[in-house]
Amino acid sequence: MARSRPDLAEPVSYASGFAFPSGHTMGSAIGVSVLLLVFLPVMAPSWRRPAVAVGTLFAVAVGLSRVVLGVHWASDVLGAWLLSLIWVLAMMAVFRTWHRQEQAATSATAHCVPRPGPEVHEPPSTDPNRGAA
Question: CB–CB of 6/73 below 8 Å?
Fold first, then answer.
């Protein structure tokens, strides 16, 4: 959206371009979410809550800093968080669907592939004509 940035008498910082949504806020929220989605499953359970807390605090701090610096309206930051949530949920749905399709394809072909089993040895034949060409 082509929304102008706040026009403050004495801004702390200046930024160019449109205000909505906050790119820094979206980038940090999506980045933290992706990192958590990738690493939480392999983390020790005792580290999961602290990791989520630190990641959330980081994304919130980035968003709030954009408002405090005077380069975004609060609604720009809230919109960025909402868009980030929608994006992450959509990507999770896509990857979950893809993963299920991969599992279905793998399990379908698993029934077609002969599995190695015990070797069957035929006892030696006593027929003198067998094996003669």
Answer: yes
For residue range 95-110, what is the model confidence (pLDDT) as tens digits? 888 878 877 777 766 5
CB 12 within 8 A of CB 69: yes
Give me the catalytic one of 72, 99, 111, 121: 72
Contacts of 37 (CB under 8 A, 6+ apart): 88, 92
Task: Write out the residue range of the structural domain in which residue 62 sits.
Answer: 23-103
Number of structural domains the chain divides into: 1
Q: Please say if 72 is a catalytic residue.
A: yes
Task: Encode pLDDT of 44-98 as tens digits.
Answer: 999 999 999 999 999 999 998 888 888 777 888 898 999 999 998 998 888 888 8
24 is catalytic: yes
User: Is 95 a domain residue?
Assistant: yes
